């Protein structure tokens, strides 16, 4: 049974002989009615405040949930970007290593080729040196033989030429 302040104010008791003092009972009932009315107003205010707070709480929970979802999406995005960046970095490093290895291999091949060229040039130089030396020796021999033939048995032969002697 729900009691209202009006029920308290309007409540009438039967009179009996030797009963309570009606003025005191009326005064006390008025005090109870005022207190009860104040409590009802306070309770209604608290219900309204509770409702408002529940709405705010619900709103904050919605905001919190959206923020958590947003943070999760951002974290997932950051994680994906970090993974992509790491993958790209690994690819760049791998490509650089491959390129460096290719440059090194090319340089080693070029050095080896230059060494072979140098050795071939040395061999050609030695070959031409020996050949030229042989040719010179051959020509000198031919010249000597030619000179020996030209002057053989003649008075102009080097064997017959007398050189003046210096007497000091």
Q: What do you see in this structure?
A:
The protein is an all-alpha fold and about 170 residues long. The chain has one domain (about 5-150). Helix content is about 80%, strand content about 0%. It contains two helices and no strands. It has helices at about 5-10, 20-150. The longest helix has about 130 residues, at about 20-150. The mean pLDDT is about 90.
The helix-and-strand class reads mainly alpha
- What is the helix fraction of residues, given as a range? over 70%
Query: What's the pLDDT, averaged over the residues?
Result: 88
Counting DSSP H or I runs of 4 or more residues, the number of helices is 2
- Head-to-tail CA distance between termini: 172 Å
Shape verdict:
rod-shaped
Question: In this structure, how is the largest beta sheet organized?
Answer: none
The tally of structural domains comes to 1
Rg over CA atoms, rounded to whole Å, is: 65 Å
Poorly predicted regions? none
Q: In total, how many beta strands?
A: 0
Order of helices and strands: HH
What structural keywords apply?
mainly alpha, 0% strand
